[in-house]
Amino acid sequence: MPIRARIILIVLPLLIVAIIITGSVTTVAATSGMTRIAMRLMNFKSVELSKYMYSQWDLLVKNDFAEKPEFLSAAQYSVTDFARSMVNNESELIFAMNNSGELVMSSKPLELKPAEAQLLLELMEEKKTGWVEVRTEGIQRVGEAAYFAPFEWYVLTTDSANSFYREIREIVFRGVLVLLVCCFIAVALLLFFAHYLTRPISKMLDTIEGIIRDRDFTQKVEVEYGDEVGNLANRFNHMTDNLLNTYNQVKNYAYKEAVARKQVIQREYDTLIVLGKAAEFKDPDTAAHISRVGFYSRMLAESIGEDEHSQNLMFYSAPLHDIGKMGIPDSILLKPAKLTEEEFEIIKTHTTIAYEILKDSRSPYLKTGAIIALTHHERFDGRGYPSGLAGTDIPLFGRIVGLVDTFDAVTSKRPYKEAWDLDRAFALLEEERGKQFDPRLVELFLSRKAEVERIFDAHRD
Q1: CA-CA to 410 of 20 to 30 Å: which in 122, 227, 237, 366?
Q2: What pTM value is reported for the model?
């Protein structure tokens, strides 16, 4: 039997089996990966919607509006509007039912058939959450279900099953097609590869190793002949071009996701600023106080060597230090005269009020704000309140805000006093070094007087 025939008989079955196994595994992995990505995206939308609903509910509770129907309806309308903003195409649908089986929210007009509504009601009674399959208006849907107890809503974030699985079916079709094409090419190439096997294949292997080693898909196989081996080299180069394009697309998707995450973080920052302003709303003379405290605090965090993340944490959390004053009566908070001993004891409680408000949050900014609010009136010599902590037992962020809050307070106009000039305020810090304030922080703050003055001038009341 000719050697070429033996090569074909030996190699061809192995090659075809390898192609089928590799292609099958690749297709299964691709479909599985696409399914996981799609499910994670659906889960992400469901989680974001739940976060938004809880944020709306928290606002109602914090402002004692939870029992007022008009405010509850406004919050539910806001949730509906947010759900609509999350829908990317016509096949997606976000809707919710109440405990009575009534449709209370939908991202687009929806009419449920009795049987469909009954199935949804059964799922809700079973408290079925996570991945579900439902039917609306005769359309099979898949998605994430969640139960939001404060509104008594059963919320479903869905997409039509046809749309959800479309790309997966396309991957399977293309996978089968590629398998058939590869098998055909393998048969054709094996008839002629013996004459061109040694040098061209070696160069191809060198190129593959270079791509694996350097992860550089721009490397190409040198095409020496215009025959089947050269054709194989050309196809390999085309494949690497496609892989490079795919890699660039993945990077583009990753970039877009990073931008979206940054926008979410920015919205959290905006919320923190609003919370900080709420604490100062009662007193129009301190409107810019929270801005200056944030900038001063970040400056000190940078000076003492904190990394950029901690500096940003300091900047956005520091303005929450007096949020507990919302729980202090105006008659005491805005009193133009000296407070009595009893009134001052009431004022002191703003630290613990703020801590109780913020401590249980999942946000690192609010958690840090809780620590700052609780400890920013502690003194380095241990004579502060509410716990009488001393020295480095006081958390660093509490020591920082304690210093800059006092500095900004004396340089700001209040109902009971006029504003000090900066030199007098700097002198106060020097005088209280090691008493009220951490000596190291005082030294760092005074070393940056020029920047302090710039912040003060840029953020006047």
Answers
A1: 366
A2: 0.45
